[in-house]
Design brief:
heterodimer, A: alpha/beta, four-stranded antiparallel β-sheet, globular, B: alpha/beta, Rossmann fold, 12 helices, 22% strand, nucleotide-binding (chain A), transport (chain A)
Chain lengths: 333, 324
Amino acid sequence: MAPLLSVRGLKVHFPISRGIWSRDVRYVKAVDGVDFDIAPGESMALVGESGCGKSTLGAAVLGMQIPTAGVISFAGEDVRHGERQTRIRLSRDIQTVFQDPVAALNPKMSIGDSIAEPLAIHGVGDAKERAERVAELLSLVGLHPQHAERRPNAFSGGQRQRIVIARALALQPKLLILDEPVSALDVSIRSQILNLLLDLQRRFGLSYLFISHDLSVVRHFADRVAVMYLGKLVETGPTETVFARPVHPYTEALLSAVPLPDPVAQRARRRIVLTGDLPSPANPPAGCSFVTRCPLAEEICRRVPPPLVAAGKQERAACHVRASRLNEEGSFA
Amino acid sequence: MTGPVLAVSDLSVSIRGNTVVDGVSLSIHAGEIVSLVGESGCGKSMTAFAVMGLLPKVARIDKGRVELGGSDLVSISEERRRQLRGAELAMIFQEPVASLNPLMPIGKQIEESLIIHRGASSREAKAAAIDMLAEVGIPEPQLRYRQYPFELSGGMCQRAMIAMALICRPKLLIADEPTTALDVTIQAQILELMKRLREETGTAILLITHDMGVVADMADRVAVMYSGRIVEEAPVDAIFAGQRHPYTRLLLSTIPRLDGAAKTELPVIEGMVPDIGSWPAGCRFNPRCPVAGDRCLSEQPALSPRPDIGRAACWHSDRVEALV
């Protein structure tokens, strides 16, 4: 199937200069050469720790961040360089849900007006039709259509996230970018929102780019996963296989660091505790970006950045020690 | 076994007349980690603040005792409480960067309590602070001693806060969501560090969290709070093996798991946490409870012994296992 979203060689670099008179302009390479596809109806999770560039990548796909290089195409059309009309159409097809539903809603607008706003901007229907659509969207996300006149402060955090989801669905998008959509919610509310998102995906064939640091949620939610470290993808593949048999040592450490909600199983696990912090993205290591924390690092890792290569039927990984070696042995040639 | 380090009995706290903590009893022994679990607004942080004597001005303790090593923290003077805080009991918070003084070098903040409470000279204090920085796993402690919080990463700030809390070897450490703001690989480092320090110093830890994975990893005993009350309490293995309160049962079942099924419908707890001040009559979980009966609507269940070990507050605790 042709991909709905295709990202090739995407780079987002932010210039930083040292000192007022210095001409030595350096860059924070927030996203540094990323390729991936999302098929219609598929959900792909982007995981990684804070500062790895996952939200910047999401913002670039949304068009809220201008890429330094690379191509983002949606249903075969270039998102950035197309005609104005094309770009307006694409902006309807790609919508977003952010982490904090309190900040995402205008406190002075009724929730009905908030949900109708994208319809008004894109000139969809008249006032009456828009009101009908708002009622339909509210019941779709499990809220009372009669509550459209209320302001956001009349709703709890979980309900506000439902309102934000309703607004994101107003223009019948094909792709939703979900940036930590349940991280700010209480545990008992999280599962309600995850169920809602999965249900909406089944009903409307939505594609999701799911940005999250919560690996348990990702395991439950996503078909495919891409692990990001310092602006680069280090491993991609079907969620099941990546979580069962991680190839990249970073993925392995990340998974082993998540404590299981089961004391007996947790005691039996071996935790790989990484030493040190994420290096500054302004000054990444020369070779593999993970080399400073990697328990397997060899001499080559310090010099040469590893390419993202096949490491299984559908998996790819960027590791000299594991993936490249598998390929040299010809296992996946 | 000697008596508990901390014994909270029948503690109630209210804010502007609305009860937020309602008759909480809890004890922690030396070297023990007790997890206080619950969602926002359940009163877990207010319980901790009451123990620390750090309640906001609008809050007041209506009744109950908070005994630390035998003396009641509720009735002692503010002066005495100040002497104990930092020396005998210490607290670390969720936001390490926000909890440190941005204008004071890390080392100065760590040694402050040693100088105030133990009367250490500045040379002794400096040496102790540098040792403590090394002990919590901060590389180049000599350099870090002189640096300011903005020069350290979030994980390092959390380590610095732990160093600050433990430098006087307190009997009790309260950790309020200590790893919630951190990435998982950094969380793993901090959790390992807390376990190691507990082994070495015998400090009792009250760990407040909403992350059941962290609970399973760290706790010896677990107390679950809902709407101001403890609804279930048991040793960690017992509570994960079998629950006797429907809230605990449902809470554990709603979490997606690394080793769980993918893309299935997760069990949910219907409705939402009731607002403080509008708690329902009877059992406060009754509007969301699938096993609630008539009695639950009018009578509040007391925390009574579970059949194996621990306590639960439910009129129908025998029906909980059949849920989900």
